[in-house]
Inverse folding.
């Protein structure tokens, strides 16, 4: 076979499937939180065909795990390509990526918390804010499950804690990938199944970094393999075929795992236990999708990474930060208006449920795009001290 007939080679520095995974996971997490407020049955009817998305929306919180996996993949990829950044440059770029939007969100949410009618504990709110600024808010009940700011921000605490660990961990992983992957996975499984799961109340431990290490390890191992296989000039057709198959199997595994989690009924303790036990297979399947989709045939890679997905991916960080907070506020402000005295979702009030759901998505996306264009990009340019042409690439790495 001539080289002209071979499938095009992917760039070892860019993973196509990452664009789709970022946008899809942010959308599903947003749908889950908006559904919690609307109770709109997540089905779509096309003629005589009914598509039921209920299982994946009901367990949409599981897609947060895949966002952490993607972060491990993208952050480790420079080391996998033999071009590790200097620690100072790496930390400045991480700060440029997350701090502008994060600080803006904290400022707005703090203002609303202070002016709330039931605000009566300024000292506790100050501690809550301090924990958020230090990115340790997932370690304390008052700043995690009882925060007056924004409950979804716990992921930023886990991410920043991993950011600080990566410069020391990545060189070791690059030298001994299987050994480090096994060690990180072993630590996570031990912490999860032997320490966290037996607890009578897992609230404060289910979303801590030791419980997430295998997700990051899966992403890092997938990046390590991707960097090597993307450079292979021989067996391109075979690699692309196997990658496409692996992508399909990984996608099926992710959807099946989340669907099984949706069958877990009971209190939040039962849901958290199911999440703990299914985190490992979910991470493996997510890594398979990410690796396979990025190595697959050209049409698949173009489907998973295109101009629209890259645009949405740039705004996904702010969408994630704001969607739940905005959904709660819109409901409190009775936008759109509803007839019920309170909780129109419990009255199954239509068409409010549909109008509210569409408005939440549209408002969160519009706000995210505006923040990305007019806050994140200019601030990142100043914080990172880098050329404007590279800002977009950095802002797509979460």
């Amino acid at each position: 076979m001539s080289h002209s007939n071979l499938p095009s080679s992917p760039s070892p520095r860019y993973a196509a499937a990452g664009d789709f995974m970022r946008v899809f996971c942010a959308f599903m997490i947003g749908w889950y939180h908006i559904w919690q407020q609307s109770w709109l049955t997540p089905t779509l009817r096309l003629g005589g065909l009914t598509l039921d998305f209920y299982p994946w929306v009901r367990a949409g919180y599981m897609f947060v795990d895949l966002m952490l996996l993607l972060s491990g993949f993208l952050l480790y990829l420079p080391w996998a390509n033999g071009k590790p950044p200097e620690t100072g440059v790496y930390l400045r770029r991480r700060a440029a990526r997350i701090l502008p939007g994060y600080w803006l969100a904290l400022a707005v949410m703090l203002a609303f918390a202070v002016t709330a009618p039931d605000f009566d504990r300024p000292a506790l709110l100050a501690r809550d804010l301090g924990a958020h600024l230090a990115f340790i808010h997932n370690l304390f009940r008052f700043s995690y499950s009882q925060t007056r700011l924004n409950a979804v921000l716990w992921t930023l605490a886990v991410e920043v804690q991993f950011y600080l660990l990566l410069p020391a961990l990545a060189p070791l992983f690059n030298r001994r990938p299987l050994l480090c992957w096994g060690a990180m996975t072993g630590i996570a499984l031990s912490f999860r199944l032997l320490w966290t799961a037996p607890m009578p109340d897992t609230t404060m431990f289910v979303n801590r970094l030791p419980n997430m290490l295998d997700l990051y390890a899966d992403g890092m191992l997938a990046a390590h393999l991707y960097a090597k296989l993307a450079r292979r000039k021989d067996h391109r057709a075979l690699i692309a075929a196997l990658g496409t198959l692996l992508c399909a199997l990984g996608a099926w595994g992710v959807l099946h795992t989340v669907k099984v989690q949706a069958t877990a009924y009971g209190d939040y303790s039962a849901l958290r236990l199911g999440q703990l036990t299914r985190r490992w297979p979910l991470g493996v399947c997510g890594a398979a999708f990410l690796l396979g989709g990025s190595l697959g045939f050209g049409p698949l890679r173009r489907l998973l990474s295109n101009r629209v997905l890259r645009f949405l991916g740039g705004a996904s960080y702010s969408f994630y930060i704001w969607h739940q907070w905005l959904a709660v506020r819109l409901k409190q402000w009775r936008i759109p208006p509803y007839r019920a005295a309170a909780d129109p979702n419990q009255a199954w009030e239509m068409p409010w449920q549909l109008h509210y759901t569409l408005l939440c998505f549209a408002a969160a996306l519009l706000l995210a795009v505006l923040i990305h264009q007019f806050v994140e990009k200019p601030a990142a340019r100043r914080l990172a001290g880098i050329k404007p042409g590279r800002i977009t690439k950095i802002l797509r790495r979460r």
Observations:
- Confidence is low (pLDDT under 50) at residues 1-5.
- Residues 19-395 form one domain.
- The CA atoms of residues 31 and 68 lie 18 Å apart.
